[in-house]
Amino acid sequence: MKLLAFASRNRRELLRDPWNLAFGIGFPLVLLLLLSAIQANIPVSLFNIEKLAPGIAVFGLSFISLFSATLIAKDRTTSFLMRLFASPLSASDFILGYALPLLPMAILQSTVCFVVSFFLGLPVNVNVLLVLVVLIPPAILYIGIGLLAGSILTDKQVGGVCGALLTNVSAWLSGTWFDLNLVGGAFKRIAYALPFAHAVDAAKAAIAGDYASILPHLWWVIGYATVIMVIAVVAFKRKMNGDNV
Amino acid sequence: MNAIEITGLMKKYKERTAVKSLNLSIEQGTCFALLGVNGAGKTTTIKMLSCLTKPTSGDAVILGKSILTEPQAVKEIANISPQETAVAPNLTVRENLELIAGIYGSEGRAAREKATRMIKEFDLSEVERQKAKTLSGGWQHRLSIAMALISEPQVLFLDEPTLGLDVLARRELWSVIEHLRGKVTIILTTHYMEEAEALSDSIGVMARGELKALGTAAELIARTGAKTFEDAFVALATGSEASA
């Protein structure tokens, strides 16, 4: 009950911030429509909807980090977290309370992205349901990054790190805008050492019905998500037990 | 019976000692005012007692529960109104109250009923459906204190509760605190001498992390030979009591 009360508060805080809706759902959709419009007017296949939609869905998830990190960092700066730290909420109540409302938001965000993609020519089949499942580990990864950033950064720093740096790294090093094989070399090696390109490739494989190619990429994401979540939990607990509340 | 027993409580931040070996007993159901100039160690003491900060050494037992070994149990029976306003900005006044009731274990209907009672008691009905971020500072402060009381704590820490409140709101809060006397043990920090004098059963004066004096307002005035309680406080806080 305590956890649910806290999670419910966080859900309301997130959904009532119009910027969250604008950036979380609106901005990825604008990019989807814009790049599809460009594709319709160029002779080469650059932004094919089967490849573009999974990339945009993963890119959209990067905003989940921004939302969660901003909420936590603001709670810290406004003494609200001090009030909550003095309450009987346990560390796990806090972590789950912040993380749980974000997962349905991430799934909703991806669903909206794929529904709009249907109108842009994405085939309607069971693979779209599969991709929504495949996108859960990337969603958890981004939630973890948000928890970590919110625990150690101020709300202003969060804007720079999650709002600018993370979204750009997610976009450029994920193969959303271009095929990483075209660039190759060190750029490709760095991209595939990080989880974002693997998340996009796993989602692309799911959409294409190439089921055997999903897990090899998804393990990378699951590995990163696990490590980031553990670090985030440790950082949050240190903050909770520290002197900086 | 004592609600709070503090033994050798100390807090060090690197080289600086914020609270030096504090020993204090506070009787159950009384209002205890902790006074001191900025940086005297009042807020650090409150943070340690409310389990927000771990003491460097020493312990405090709150209604039989140690802040070191049973912090979760202490958190169940105590609540705090922080110095700065602490509300959820995008939640309405009612939602903020129901949130805290829920966090302290009241479910659904019980949480709603408690929220209704606090709205009535703190005269919040005209802003009940307003988001907290749209309220003026005074209203936010009033809500913040109502949030501390909705859990029906046995021990309540009020860190400068009337800071920023207008005279009427301050008097209303005084009235609320008066009503709690005998039922809730209140530890109050304040910079307003008349507030400490009017509300508290006993007063502790802290300076540079140490408890310099303890007693009722009348006792402290008598001890310093001052004319007013404010003069007595100045004498105790500056260490010039002998010449006062």
Give a description of the structure.
Chain A: Belongs to the ABC-2 integral membrane protein family. Chain A: InterPro entries: ABC-2_transporter (IPR052902), ABC2_TM (IPR013525), ABC2_TM_bact-type (IPR047817), ABC_2_transport (IPR000412). Chain A: Its main location: membrane. Chain A: It is found in: Cell membrane; Membrane. The complex is a heterodimer of chains A (245) and B (244). By secondary structure, chain A is mostly helical. Chain A has one domain. Chain A has helices at residues 2-15, 18-40, 49-77, 80-85, 91-99, 102-119, 127-134, 136-152, 155-172, 180-183, 185-193, 195-208, 214-241. In chain A, helix 1 (2-15) packs parallel to helix 5 (91-99), helix 3 runs parallel beside helix 8 and helix 8 (136-152) packs antiparallel against helix 9 (155-172). The mean pLDDT of chain A is 89. With 244 residues, chain B is of the alpha/beta class. Chain B folds into two domains: 2-86 and 154-238, Rossmann fold, CATH 3.40.50.300; 88-134, no CATH class. Helices cover 38% and strands 26% of the residues of chain B. The model of chain B has no long low-confidence stretch (mean pLDDT 91). The interface between A and B is medium-sized, with 27 and 39 residues.
